[in-house]
Amino acid sequence: MTSTLITNIGELVTCDPAHGDGSPLGVVHDAALVIEGARIAWVGAAAEAPAADTRIDAAGRAVVPGFVDSHTHLVFGGERSAEFAARMAGARYDGGGIAATVAATRAATDEELRSSAAARLREMRASGTTTVEAKSGYGLDVATEERLLRLSRELTPETTFLGAHVVPPEYARDRSAYVELVCGPMLDACAPHARWVDVFCDQGAFDHEETRAVLRAGVAAGLAPRLHGNQLGFGPGAQIAAEFGAASVDHCTHLSHDDVAALREAGVVATLLPAAEFSTRSPYADARRLLDVGVTVALATDCNPGSAYVTSMPFVIALAVREMRMTPGEALWAATAGGAAALRRTDVGSLAQDCSADLALLDAPGYVHLAYRPASPLVACTWVAGELVHDTGALA
Ligand SMILES: [Zn+2]
Known about the structure:
Distance between the termini: 23 Å
Bound molecules: zinc ion
Number of strands: 17
Oligomer: single chain
Helix content: 25-40%
Strand content: 15-25%
Structural class: alpha/beta
CATH class of the largest domain: Alpha Beta
CATH architecture of the largest domain: Alpha-Beta Barrel
C-alpha cells in the first residue's frame, strides 16, 4: 500500500475534538497528515510526521475534511431556468414545477441521465465534496424510479428512495392509489438499490398519514428513514422524523417549539438547505435557535433543477454564515461532520485516524476564507478515499 505525506499544512481542520483545543473543529496549525491507501493513517504536528512514500508540500495552505452533501436530487433530466426567471420576476414557488422535471426525466435515456449527473458530480468534487447522497423522486413510476436509483448507485452508496416526492399528474384524482403504488411495487423495485426511504412531508405534498405509511413500508423493506419536512409551512414532518428515529429531517424552515424539542430529544439531525431559500427567495431557517439548544445541524445543497440548482458546498457555507448567522466554524462542521451524522456515517466528515482519506486542500491560509471569499474557487485539490479526483495544478 502506498503512503502519502501532506505536510506544511498551515491550518488543518480535523473535526476530531481529540486534536487542537478540544473544540469540535479540532484545528491543528503547522500540521501534517499521512494517507495510506484509502485511509487516514496519521494526523498531527508537521514536526512529528512520519516518513511516507511520497510527500506533498501544502505550502502553508489549509486542509479541511471533504464536504458531505447529505441531501441532493443528483439524477434528473432537463432544467428549469425559465421557472427560476419567472420566480425572480415575482411568481411564487409552490413545488408545482416538479412535474416538468418528471416529464423530462422519464423522456431521458440512461446515458443522458448518467452523463448529466456525472457532470454535476464533477462540479461537486471541484468544490470539495467527497460524499454525496442522491435521491430518486423525478420518475414517479415504477420503471423510472428504479432506473434513477440504479443510476445513482453507480455514483454513490448513499441512495434514497423518494417515490413520495409529489403525486404525479396521472394519479391526481386518486392519491391513495399512488401511495399504495409507492408502498408496494415501486418500493419492491427500488429497495435493492436504496439505503434510505424519504418522503416530502409538507403543505401540498404528503400529509402525516401518507408519510407514516410510506416510512413504515420502507422500514419494513430494510431502508432507513429520513424526511423532507417543514419547508413550505408548519407541519408534522419534524415530529414524524422523531417518532421514526429518522437520521435527519431536511429543510426545517418552519419549526414549532415542540418540533425543536422533539428533534433534540430523539437525536434527529436538522439538515438546513439555505440554497433552496436563496433560489426561491424565501425566509431562511433559524439555525441559531437549533444550535443554541443542542440540535445537531447539517448543511447540504439540495441540488435539484427547481428550487436549488447548486452544487457548491462552499456557497452553502457562505449562505449559512451570512444569512443564518452561523459562525464559519459551525458552518464548516455542519457541512462535514454534520452531514456525516445526517447519513449515520462515522468514516467520513472528519480527518481522524482510520477515516476515509476524503479531504480538500484550499487555496487559502484558513477555513474562514470559505465564507469570507464566496464564489471564489478556493478548492485546489480534492481526494476521495485517498485518490486525487480534482486538481487545479496546485501540486505542480
Ligand atoms: Zn430536496
